[in-house]
Give the backbone structure.
Amino acid sequence: MRVRPTVLLGAALLAIVTASAGCGGSGAEAGGASSFDRDDCQGGTLTVLNQGGLDEFDPARLYTSGGGALPTLVYRTLTTRQRVAGEAGNKPVPDLATDLGTPSDNAKTWKYTLKDGLKFDDGTPITSADVKYGIERSFSPDLPGGAPYLHDWLIGGEDYKGPYDGAHLKSIETPDARTIVFRLRQPHGDFPYLATATQFAPVPKAKDTGTKYTNAPVSSGPYKVEKYEPGKKLLLARNPHWSRSVDGQRLACPDRIEVTAGLDATVINQRLVSGAGADAGAITTDTPVGPEQLARLGSDQRLAKRVARGVFGETKYLAFDATKKPFDDIRVRQAFAYATNRQSVVNAVGGSSLASPATTFLPEGKAFGHRPYDHFPAGPNGNPAKAKELLAQAGHANGLTVELAFPNSDAGGYGPKVAAAVQDALKQAGVTVKQKPLGEEDYRTIAGKPATQPPLTLQSWGADWPAGGPFLIPIFDGRQILRDGGNFNLAQFDDPAVNAEIDAINQLTDPAKAAPRWGALDARIGGQALLVPLYHPRTVVLYGKDVKNAYIDQWRGWYDVSTVSVK
């Protein structure tokens, strides 16, 4: 299993989550919820003002977090997230399928049945063959960029190259028009979560135009694509063959949705504040509030009423390569944990409104199985004295000099400002930190390969769905160490007992039983100081004065566009 880490898009603030697959703890607020009537919300045009998110719209190429909240308006999948605010929004629910799937063979086989009455935007029925074909085309080398799980999980998926040469995946069976069966290499109790990914959107083979499909995709959701200009504009109109009778999750209130990308973050927030013309019915799916607006929230009550707050399951952290000196000594790693001043890190990214200090790798939230722990208690400001004591025990009584690598941009929330805060805290413990900023592309290439990985780096991790598995497996499963690149197990940690526990939890198909096991495993691994959690981001975003039901969806940490309405 490999997961792409979250890349933040907001430039004005540092630590706000993007429209990414994720969840978190409390804090979701529904804009205008008291006057919102889901049975009387149809009409109007919803305007979406974004910095990015329109570079790709092919369901095969969209990562689980890619494209933000917009693809779910066009593409339905076997399952989807429950469209409600709060913790209940962390649950997968049936979408095209009648249920969350029937597992067998210790969760290595999953069977789904499609609902009756499903149609594409041209009126043709949606069949299991369309779902299978949509998945198969996501394996084509011509359509890269999608979530990698199916390549790893499906039998034969690692070598499959897509259907364009006539080959098909035998591990996906469609015995009839409404039934689809998946056969996996290993048990995966999280399969209902994965089935929310856009790769599970049905694609009619007769309408597939390969790399050009992104320009005119066939809709299975409440809206169809009227116009698409990559990186610039997306216009969505109602799909006449969709109805709430076959889709109990998406409200699809607006008649039209007009998305503009390529805008500056400052411009977006200024337009949302002013609310002139069409901007009164505007939201953004990738731009947090700017410093100016954040400063006004305490004194401007009218503006404060147009703010949604929430969280995404993400952790910013200090990562060690435990195979390289000096971090092959646990006492050095523990010293860095004690020396860390989390309050200074939180301040660096904008304060407590935008970040909460972290002592656990798993974010807060029942869905993750979060278990509170602090194996190296040092208070909010760190304990440099304890850190010096441990360094002396490790043979560094006269101090230590290390190099810290990090992205050269603050946009991701773990760049220069966080590096400076870490540098200052370690200095109090006698550690001299030499900064090594790198361009984002170079950073990922270098840090993702064990042979070139720096011993000490700043990192970010956000899960693709709200569960402990996609958080812990890529980072701590020893079988996920990828020598040729794309590696996220930066500690190069390989503990057979941990690997065995991961396998055991993966067989559990009940999230309520799996979650506490993931939390216990996080606490167990945390005692080895393989990384230092720094903070969990918080989301603060504006919406237009005529927008209703603009709550933060905890699965991804942004608005659920499918439930928003305009006056």
Observations:
- DSSP finds 14 helices and 22 strands in the chain.
